[in-house]
Amino acid sequence: MSNWQKWLTITLLAGIIGCTAFAMGFGMGRHIFPSSPSAVVRVQQEQQEQFQVFWEAWRVIQDEFYTDKPLDQEAMMHGAIRGMVASLGDQHTVFLLPTQAGLFREDLQGQFGGIGVTVSRTEDGLLRVMKPIAGSPADKAGLQSGDLILEVDGKPVQQMDLLQAISLIRGPEGTEVRLLIRRAVDGQGSDLLLRRAAIDVPTTESRMLDDRIAYLAVYECNARAPGEVRDQLRQLLAQQPQALVLDLRGNPGGYLYVATEIASEFISNGLILYERGKDGQEIRHEARPGGVATDLPLAVLVDKGSASAAEIIAGAIQDNERGVLVGEPTYGKGSVQTTERLSDGSALQITIRRWYTPAGRQIQDHGLTPDIEVKATGLDVATDHDPQLERAVSYLLSLQSR
User: Is pLDDT at 286 greater than 90 in this prediction?
Assistant: First the structure.
């Protein structure tokens, strides 16, 4: 985040949490106009005018709103910040309550207390089970890919945002959570009581397929991913594979630097991505030397769950003609966020730049189009049939016969 953006964020939040308009105006004015006293005064006045209506509304609520219990000042303040963020119209710029900010940090570290299942939001607001973690409480309880979660501890998830629902499902190890679900196979409802456990999210999975083709899945671009990817690749290469399938399906992304490091394992040199800020300045990210799988024939599996950092990896491989993408169009998240911690433990996850593939493609709301499109149906998921992996293997085998 640029200094100007940091000052603007601090200034706006200071107004909402109770600092004076004068102090706000001076802070921002001093940064933008360091040698212009008249400009400082003008910014102070503008800030006072802009926040006058806010404080008028705050005082009216304090003085006149009827309630039989004290007003929740913290909830009012958080609501004001949430409204300010919503006015930006960017779904990836969000305000996180302290508990939600904690969830976000846990996700990127790969460890938390919960039932061991990844979920996505359906169009009608329910939670769809993407994949239970092997051996987790969810897996032992029989939750399967495609099952829908309707309620958590008696509370309908349809009215919640995704982070709120996830925060209810997670909790301390040993505690219980009750889920009302609808089975994907037959549409029947089921009530499940699960005991939460310490969940260590698998970041990667690898194995050798038939015909000497290696398979590597990367589930999330968290802090552990680069080391695990390199270790898994070395183990696979020791078995002398003829080709490699990289599976990025359902990978929601993570850190940008992690995406660069993972892509560099497959791309020996060249551009991985570049970022562009609101001022037009660009930040280029080149492939890092020392990749261990830069020559092996490569096919990358993607779907609508492949997002953000996963799209960076896939886009770099596609644009550098290092391999082909197989599957379905990706999610389409072409923005870069930073998370700014606030003093009460809450946080702002705020968009600061757009990123572009090496060929200059901006994928926001469009995603990446696979070189070989293969759809997976609900029946495929329910029966563990994987036509996308089959097609990737078929493609790689065709290369060997040429």
Answer: yes
